[in-house]
Structure formats: C-alpha cells, structure tokens
From TrEMBL:
HTH tetR-type domain ranges (all copies): 7-67
Parts forming coiled coils: none
Source organism of this protein record: Streptomyces galilaeus
Protein name as catalogued: TetR/AcrR family transcriptional regulator
Alphabetical list of InterPro entries matching this protein: Homeodomain-like_sf (IPR009057), HTH-type_TetR-like_transc_reg (IPR050109), HTH_TetR (IPR001647), Tet_transcr_reg_TetR-rel_C_sf (IPR036271), TetR_C_31 (IPR041583)
Keyword Transcription: yes
PANTHER family (UniProt xref): HTH-TYPE TRANSCRIPTIONAL REGULATOR BETI, HTH-TYPE TRANSCRIPTIONAL REGULATOR RUTR
Length: 207
C-alpha cells in the first residue's frame, strides 16, 4: 500500500473508528478492529494515536466538533430570541433523528470516559465546548434583540444541554414522533421562560 502522510491518515482513521463503533459499539472498538476497518496495519493506529484511549479521545473530539458545526451553521443571525432558540433546538433535534448512531456512540463514549482517567480531560473539554458555544449563541440572540437574561447565559446553556440530553436518550430508547415534538416545544418554552421570556408554548419547526 502506498505511503499516506500522517496528516491525511489521522482523519481517515478517526472516520473509520466512528463508522465501526457506531455500527458495533464502543466495546468492540479495539485498535485491531479499527485498523481492519480501514485496511491498515494495527501498528498504524498505535503510531498515530499512541493508545486506544488516544483514538477514543480523537473520536470524541470529532463527534463533538461535528455537532457544534451543524448547530452553528443553523443559528439564525437576524431572528428574534424565541425564534433563535427554537431554530437551534430544531437543528439539534434534526441531528438526533438523522444521525442516531452518532448520538448513541457519543453517549457510550461519555459513559466509557467517566471510568477512564485518561479521558477525563477530553470529557471535560467536550462539555465545556458544547456549553460555551450554546452560551455564546444565547448571548448573541439576547443582545441582538435587547432581551435581558434572567439567568447567566452559561446557566441557561447548561439547562438547555441537560434537557436535550434527556430528550435524546428518550428518542434512542423509545422513539415516539408525536410525543417527542410536544416535549421539544415544552422544553424550549421552559428555556425561554428561564431566560426571562414569556411562559407560553414556543413553536418548534417539525422536521
């Protein structure tokens, strides 16, 4: 096989690991299995990431960045406060519906990282990155619309992400389209109310 530069091989291995573990589960994601998925020597994986934990760290970082990018691209730049939160929630929910395997894999990796000291910093970075981006988007929407926040943006962001994690788990465990949309609307309404808006049902696009 022709030599492939490390800068090119690394993203190939990360994508191969994501594809394999999304299909087979984290427990099956050995360096040998990932190497076989891409058709390279096991030593290539170790050379690129050092350890299995190093590979898992890269996979978590990539999954997190993929989700953040999708949400940032969906964030409106000229919408009202409630509409902005509704659009962000709809964009995130679309990733759950269209990429359930990726969300399940990220959940599995999160649980794995809780018991793996070598991944503690990666887990912290994952949650910090998601919280910071969410808080920034909330702050920008509030400032754009002259919306005073009743709680710090980070507190609202943490509430938003915690609630969304719960809805995602329900979707993965027991999907119910009608109930999910109703719960999503109620959830966004609660976030708006927490931020200082009106306590009423906020419409969320059904995608």
């Amino acid at each position: 096989m022709a030599h492939v530069p490390a800068a090119e091989r690394r993203p190939q291995l990360i994508r191969a690991a994501i594809d394999y573990m999304a299909r087979e589960g984290v427990a099956a994601g050995s360096t040998r299995a990932i190497a076989a998925e891409l058709g390279v020597a096991q030593a290539t994986v170790h050379y690129t990431f050092g350890t299995k934990e190093g590979l898992y760290r890269a996979v978590m970082e990539q999954l997190t960045q993929d989700l953040i990018t999708q949400v940032e691209e969906a964030a409106p730049t000229d919408a009202g406060f409630e509409e902005t939160l509704s659009t962000l929630a709809a964009a995130l929910w679309r990733t759950v519906r269209e990429q359930p395997a990726s969300h399940q894999l990220l959940t599995e990796l999160t649980m794995f990282a809780l018991r793996t000291p070598a991944l503690s910093e990666t887990l912290e970075s994952h949650f910090r990155g998601a919280t910071d981006v969410t808080a920034r988007l909330i702050t920008e929407a509030a400032e754009r619309n002259g919306q005073p926040l009743a709680q710090p943006a980070e507190t609202i962001a943490r509430f938003f992400l915690a609630g969304f994690d719960g809805l995602t788990t329900q979707r993965l465990s027991h999907p119910d389209e009608d109930a999910e949309h109703t719960c999503l609307q109620a959830f966004v309404s609660a976030v708006v109310a927490m931020a200082g808006g009106r306590l009423e049902l906020v419409s969320v696009p059904a995608n």
